[in-house]
Each structure stands twice: as structure tokens, then as C-alpha cells.
Amino acid sequence: MSNNNDIKTRLAERKAVATLEQFFDGGVFTEVNAAYGEANLAEAVCGYGYVDGMAVCAFCQDITESDGAMSTAQAKKLTYIYELALKIGAPVVGFYNSKGARLAEGNMLLDALSKLLSLSSKLSGVVPQISVVLGKCVGTTALLASNADFVVRTEDAVISLDANSKCCGCGAIVEKDEASAIEAAKALVTYLPSNNLALTPSALDVEVNAATDFMSAFDANTVLELNKGSEASATYFARLEGNVVGVVETKGKTLEKDDVKKITKFVKFCDAFSIPVITAVDAEGFKCLGGAKKVLSAYSEATAPKVSVITGKAVGAVYLAAVGTSDASLALEGATVSPIKPEAAAYIMLGDKLNIPVAEQDKLIAEFVANDLSALNAAKNGYINDVVAVENLRARLISALDILSSKRETALPKKHTTL
């Protein structure tokens, strides 16, 4: 057994401590169970502290101690920090960097991990969970990391059940190195509430953008994009008059499988923590029926304030999912609302009027879309609430969320949706 001096030396040399010091305010945190298992120090450092003034529980696998290998002792140590987060209602942030697991511990390790994973799943929707993958995260440990609401990782991180596989591609935020990933996790925490009964942190200093498009309506320098990479959609956290909102933006293309997955998970997270969702609608449809069903279900189930802004085309199932389920629906000038693709609707509605030369057909169709399928016409018929100029959008969004702040809506009594 190591003597006390050896333990103190190993405690001081742990890289995990430096990682947590970079993460917490002022580099200060309180470590818990520091000398648990004198022989291996449980290959992880756990503690609590503050990030931007918010209490946070965190752990970091210690690559300098037995390569950070997951063990029964480490699983029990992490279980304690999850239990503490549940008791005090604080986010859990886990930093992963390990070269595997202590397979010699066999079923004893599996049993400890199963309890840890079960606890993590039960905490979902109760406190925010963030995983920061700084190196390898393989095997059952990858299950725990991917169980979080958000995964922040470095470009060369490996997250997979198979130790020989490359990264599975997950990652709400991807950074070039460890230092950047840690800073990104800190930034993400500032947009989140402590738990599902707490309010999101608000900002007092507000800067306003010049009104040029939908995204310019939000406070300047407050937009944090998540899950980058799609040309059809984007999800963000942002602030509007200092208050946190979730933003879904569709970009005029058909929504694919990855877009559906990203949007539904983000809307469900925002709803679980009562974060208002503002959706920019500009899409002609979904790639498949299943995708349309999932997005419609996510928006329909959400009881958090929902505001939709038609920035381009709101067609068919996209209108039903993102506009028809919203508490307030707006459109920018020049937007289009149609039950099917606008050109197809024109051919159906104009009928025999299109028995004219092709050049004249195009003009007639364009006039039909601009007039009969316009957002203004939709507003006149009660399909949306109003049409606004881009320079007035910010004020209208602030007004809508202000009145919706006292929204009272509860879901029907059931365990969960089956969609």
C-alpha cells in the first residue's frame, strides 16, 4: 500500500486537477473522495464549484492515473457526484479521457456501470448534463458520455463502443484542442438553468444588432451554434433582451434524417428546462414521413413557449409541425405559406388558365404564389398571427415572449409519448 507521501505526490501531479481548475471560476473547486481507493485513486477526480456563478458538479477521468481506465471504484465515485447533483439540483459536467476499462474486474464493473448509467438516464430532464471528450472514450464509458444532453469534444476525440473505431460523429460542439473544448463547455453552461425548476441565467448588458435578417433579431454576440454541419438546418442558444432562448433555423432545403434528429432533440431539451423555442421556418418538406412525424411530435408535446417566424416558405408538413403547433406565429414580408409546393399548388388552382405560352405561364404562376400564397394572405385568413418587417421583428419577438412568460399549459397525464 502506498504511504501518505506517495499519495500526496500523486494527487498533486494529476492532470485531471488542472482540467477542472481551468473549468471552474478562479480555478477553485472542492474535491470529494480525493483518496478513495489508495492504490489507484479511482482514476478520476470529482468535485463541485462554480461556473459563471452557477453551482456545478463535475468529474474528470485522470489519464495520469492508470490511463484513466474505468473501474468499479471510479464508477462508484462518479455515482456519488451524480447523486450530489440530484440532491442540490446542479448540472453535471464530465471530462473523458481514458484508454479503456479494468476488464479484470468483470461483472463487478458491469454492475457498477449499470447503476451509474441508470442514474444518468434518470437525471435526464432534471439537471443538464454535458460530456467533454478530450481523448479516447470507448466501450461502456462511451454510453455514459453520449447519455449527456450535449457532447463537447476535440477534433481528434474518439467516442465509440468499439475501441478500434473512429469517432461516431456525435458532438454538439467540436473544438481543435483541449483548452478550447473546456472553454466551450464553460460557455455552454452559461445558457443553461441549474435544473428543471430553475430559471436560465439572464444577462444585464444587452447589445442590439442592426436589423438585417432573422438572426439579427437576437442580442449581439450571444448566439451559440450547436451541431454544426447541415446546410438545411441549424440550432442555437441565444439571448433576446438578455433572456436565453432556443433557436431552430431551417434554411430553405428539404429536412434530412440528421436535421430531424438534431431538431427534435433540441426542442425536447428546451421543453424539459422551460426554455422558449423560436423557429425560423423556411423549408418545403421532409425527406421522409417518419421525420415529419418526429418533428411534429416534438413540437406538439412541448409546453414551453413556442414562437414561429416564417422567413421563406412554410409548406405542408413543415407548416403543420413548426407553425401550426406554435403559440405565436409571425412571418417576414415576402414569405410564402402553402399546403404543397407552391408551383404545384399554382398548377392545381389555376387549371385551364395555364393553357397559354410557357413564358406567360411562369408569370401567372409567380403572380399566384406572390398573392394567393403570400404570408399576408395567410394572415388575413387567420393561418398566422401577423406579417412583420425585419426591422420590427426583434420588438415583436420580445413582446410575444413577454406575454407567453406566464403561459400555463400542462401535458396530458401519461408516462411518455410512443412516437
What does this structure look like?
- The chain is an alpha/beta fold and 419 residues long.
- The protein has helices at residues 4-13, 15-23, 72-88, 106-123, 140-146, 178-189, 257-272, 289-301, 317-323, 342-350, 358-371, 375-380, 390-404, and strands at residues 29-32, 44-51, 54-61, 92-96, 129-133, 136-138, 150-154, 158-160, 173-175, 224-226, 233-240, 243-250, 277-283, 306-315, 328-332, 336-338, 386-388.
- The protein has 13 helices and 17 strands.
- Strands 10, 11, 12, 13, 14, 15, 16 and 17 form an 8-stranded mixed beta sheet that branches. Strands 1-2-3-4-5-7-9 form a 7-stranded mixed beta sheet, sandwiched between helices.
- 46% of the residues are buried.
The CATH class name of the largest domain reads: Alpha Beta
Q: N- to C-terminal separation?
A: 55 Å
Radius of gyration: 25 Å
| Mean pLDDT over the residues | 89
Described by the principal axes of the CA atoms, the overall outline is: elongated
Total strand segments: 17
Beta fraction of the residues?
Answer: 15-25%
Name of the CATH homologous superfamily of the largest domain: 2-enoyl-CoA Hydratase, Chain A, domain 1
The number of helical segments is 13
Series of H and E elements: HHEEEHEHEEHEEEHEEEHEHEHEEHHHEH
Low-confidence stretches: none
What is the helical fraction, as a range of percent?
Answer: 25-40%
For the sheet with most strands, the description reads: 8 strands, mixed
- How many separate domains make up the residues? 2
CATH-level-2 architecture of the largest domain: Alpha-Beta Complex
Structural class: alpha/beta
From the 3D structure, determine the CATH topology of the largest domain. Answer: 2-enoyl-CoA Hydratase, Chain A, domain 1
